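pinned: reference chain
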Amino acid sequence: MSDNRRARLDTPRDTRRPIVRRPSVDADAFGVFAESFARYMGTAKFLLWMTMFVVAWIAWNTLAPSDLRFDEFPFIFLTLMLSLQASYAAPLILLAQNRQEQRDKVIAEQDRQANARAHADMEFLAREVASLRMSVGEVATRDFLRSELRGLLSDIEDLSQPDAPDDRQAPPDQVSRPGP
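pinned: its structure tokens
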């Protein structure tokens, strides 16, 4: 216990004391080991080595002289070893799968957030494009302005000319020219 807790009178003392200290295990390091072990067990190399081990075991205990054999025909010791390996392999594989599932959840959440941001950006851009379309619809184009100016120019020319009979033509220097 720390000295601060003993000095305080308003804090009860801890009466339980552990009989045996539990070994501390770094969960992350053990998880990394479990993942690498599970990854190795899923390879063809592991299956090949395991098959060669079992074949050598069975061959030795069937073909070797009787006094050198250490596991007779039912191969109980081999079965025990394979069961022991399986009893350790299964939890390690499950631990590796759980860690992968947690990583997948984190990645899925990040993807969901990125998709939400992209969706919000697309909605914003769609609104901007719609407002630009509405604004462009209200803006006068160059061709519209030219046609309006031509119309005004012809109106001004008509007003500046005195009333002339219809059969007279205007001199060539007063003919309206199209705008630039």
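why pinned: Residues 97 and 142 are 66 Å apart (CA to CA). The helical segments are 3-7, 27-41, 44-63, 76-138, 142-160.
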